[in-house]
Amino acid sequence: MPDGVRGGYPAPIDLNSSDFSEWIASQECTDSLARALEMANSKILEYTKKKWDLEKALKERGAKKEHHEEEQVAQEGESPESPKKGVGQNIRSIIQQIEQGTIDGIQLSFKNITLGEAKALAEAMVANAEKSTIKTLELYGNEFGDEGVMAFSEVIANENSAVEKLDLGGCDMTDLGAFALAEALKKNKTVRTLNISSHTGITSQGIGAIAKALGTNSCITKLDVSSCVLDRDGVSLLAQGLKTNTALKDIDLRFNEQMGNGAAEMACALKQNRSLEVFDLSYNDINDDIVNEIALALQENKETALRTIALRGNNITDAGAERLVQALNESNNQTITDIDLTTCNVASCSDKRVRV
């Protein structure tokens, strides 16, 4: 067994008080804590899945018993109860269409779907995956939490999934749900548009897992992570994924004011990326220094596919706007048609491609 590892977990480190102070400030300490947290979250995810599987088995057993009782009631001429207790009529109707294979899209944003209803929908989609034609799954604003996200992650992890648009924005997701979604994305070959916006409970660990999945994902072309309270670490991890991703064309990072210098790392990723066409960093407290990094990326990356750069509502001045114009001219850029600097501190700009 390698030194420092016992059963997969970091071994205790024997340090005196002076060594400890030095170690606690070291990168080794940071890396060790990150590994420990990742393993802990992995175990939580594993046990949550086991809990979900057990609940599902118990539910199926209960359904069989209930079905038997309903047959007896029917034979006696009485009206049986609905076999989908706790599931509203609208959801029951959708489940019936899923079972019949007659529905190609589910639009349920802001419908107050309960966790039970979310699980029932997901289970129906998995059970009928082979005949499913559902390409759109819009669930924004339904706070069914991590267990609901895990349920729909199972849907897209299924090899027969046809889902191309997955909207899980504002669903009360935390790192646990993000880990499950990341694992599903590693298997999925159909999702093109992914929305995980409006989640304040996802930390850099959860974003890191999704970023890692995106690093090798060749399907997703549009990603929305706006309003997620992304900090510098989270944005840095996304930037790393962006450097190797060859499919993503549109990324929305609006309203993540806590990203700080992470925005500079995201701008640096543009030096290597060859697929991104729309890049939105609006309302992120970005200044002229970050704009300079974007300008450098435009100058260095002669193969950029960027068409639109949105920087609305940032602390950018006339100097920043002219720096972008300089970069466009010096690189002889022919792809960018729109740089949006509206509601910034820019009075005017000499290039029509830059809107102020």
From TrEMBL:
Superkingdom as given in the UniProt entry: Eukaryota
Alphabetized GO MF terms: GTPase activator activity; small GTPase binding
Keyword Ribosomal protein tagged: no
Biased composition (Basic and acidic residues): 59-71
Ranges in coiled-coil conformation: none
Residues making up the signal peptide according to the UniProt record: none
Chain intervals for the UniProt region annotation (Disordered): 59-87
Pfam families found in the cross-reference section: LRR_6
GO BP: nucleocytoplasmic transport
Entry keywords, A to Z: GTPase activation, Leucine-rich repeat, Repeat
SMART domains reported for this sequence: LRR_RI
InterPro entries xref list: Leu-rich_rpt, LRR_dom_sf, RanGap
PANTHER family recorded: RAN GTPASE-ACTIVATING PROTEIN 1
Protein name: Protein NLRC3
Organism the protein comes from: Cladocopium goreaui
